[in-house]
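The records we work with from here on pair a chain with its fold. Taken together, the tokens spell out the fold as the letters spell out the chain. The record below shows the convention in full.
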Amino acid sequence: MTASLIRFFFTLCAVLTLARVAYADEPATRAAKRHFDRGQKLFTLGKFDAALDEYQKAFDASPIPDFLYNIGQCHRNLGDLEQAVFSFKRYLQLDPEAQNRDKVEIIIEELEDKIEREGAKKRGDLPPPPPPKPGSTPIYKKWWFWAGVTAVGVAGGVGIYAATRPDGPPDTSLGNIVFTK
């Protein structure tokens, strides 16, 4: 009987401890939801800096991997590509079964390519664009182009006038008034 009473006591303690742990997580979850909702509104408004702060606070309150995806999107929209790649990779590490895994991997690949291109451009690895050939000015900057446009415009105006003008003298079918004295 004493052994069953001791087991009951330990079971009761374990249940109460788990209940306290679950209750302790509730304020953190509410804070995370509050920050997430603010972040969503700010992201929709295009205020990516502020949205990033809110998503980061949400992740700090409750480390849900989906917050990292949103953090990565903010970094991506702000042009901080290295941080975006880091956040997306961390998201996939914490949630290996993510439903959008393929999409995120494509985004990571695109961002890494862009980082590499920008790095090559900064280092000067890319050849400079070829200089324009001397004397190769665009056609619309040549005098003869505008002379031709003018000639076509004048010819078109004359043609329209000739096609729509009345033929011969005006109609006189109403007759004349005879003035008699």
